[in-house]
Description:
By secondary structure, chain A is of the alpha/beta class. Chain A is built from 15 helices and 19 strands. Chain B has helices at about 1-15, 15-40, 45-55, 60-79.
Amino acid sequence: MSSNSPAAPAALDPANEAILKERWPHILQVLNDITPDEEIVLTTQTPLPTLIIKGLQLSSVYDQTSEARLQASRVPMDAAEVCVYGLGLGALVRELLTRGRINTLHVVIMAPQIEYWTLAHFNHSDWLQDPRVQLHLARDEQNIRMPFAFVPPCLQLAEDGATPLKDMIAIEVNRESLNSHFSHALQQFHLNIETNKPFMQDDHDVAELFNSKVGARAVIVAGGPTAQAQFDWIKEQREQLTVIAVNTALIPLQKAGIKPDFAVVCEYQANTIDHFTDLNKQVWSDVPLVYVASVHHDVVACWQGPRYVALHHQAIFQNLREPWQRGYLFSSGTVTHDAVDLAVQMGAKQVCLAGADFSFPNNKSHMDNVTFTMELENYANTWAIDGYGQRVKSAQSLVMYLRELERYITLHPGVEFINTGKAGANIAGTTWKDE
Amino acid sequence: MLRIIQKAADHFRLGLEAEASEHLKKINEHIEKHVIEEGLPSEQFLTVLKIMCDAQQRGDYLCVADLLQYEIQPYFKDL
């Protein structure tokens, strides 16, 4: 895997080109319009040849058939219509075509400027001419096709136009591991709810806040790096705004001299308390805390202001017996969702997002003065598109939260959602504050 | 350990990087322990580790999978 040479610029393999011309001329046109300028290496001194594009191997160099068989194992054996994302060297497509039950195999090109090279250096004509195969461009695909298999590096190398699809695939792939993480956390959820019950008995129900701010302009202060740039504006507009802050933003807000109208917390971990210990309790004693029943009880106990308890839509909350039922807030795992839904259910007509970056603008995970930050090298495993149309480093979990928020926004057409930090991820369905 | 190495390689090939990285942490701990108990491994093995570390850093997970399955696993199998 070490001694290889840069691949010389190459035309498409004639056999591939002939079939593309006949079956998918519009895709051939896209491929022919590409200026091949990627960093490409064709391995020559490995047991099997492969392409290395932007530092990523497109396949194993030892056993491509076994690798393809493993990747194909995602697809149920009885599936008749199947999708493959990314061409790789074609091994995964070939593996699936050996299954007699498959009558339609959609093959999706994730980045023409990447897949050009595999179509230039490798002969794919055997599967390209298979009548069961339908070739597509990811940029034209609105929805994920199920069931599917994929060539992982082709997802990593996806073009910007394929970002929403790439995220949908990654979310689907990671759903299983997220579910497993959730079930691991479930025990702690149960424990926290039990220990919170004495508080829940006396605290307000979040539903008491619903429809209490009809027509309001709300600003959600999340913990992302771009939040801080909005602090002066929040101070100027303070009287006209309902300020809802997530727990990570509390200390930075205190340092900026801004007291929110509501604080929100949903995290179940014990170290969540760290976001609260340095708060000036006297100053904050009239700020209501909206907490989810599963937060760590130390967090609830430390709050001296009014408290409102909320539930999430997961089964663990829905299964609570009647005396413990409270109002529900939408969340797929980030407290930013809770804060947004609180604003919407309170009746806000406009929800402005500050620091809802869902990414790492300027290589930062949070704004200054937060209690703890994330090590980017451990988390930055994907990207989002920022407000300038450029890629910004992100994490799979953040992208999932972003897509869930976008879905939520589409379900609330009566509310105007405004985003503020262009260096953070673009959130579909929002407009920019300064435009 | 051989089973964990295989799992890590498989998870990388399936695009399940988070799970694969968890396995990789255990493998690294095992290698550290091995070095403490047995002394430094061969230069060739150290080179493989270096290449694997670089590959992981640039997100070249199929390269990491290959190294785990076809270089690291046989090394421990032969011990």
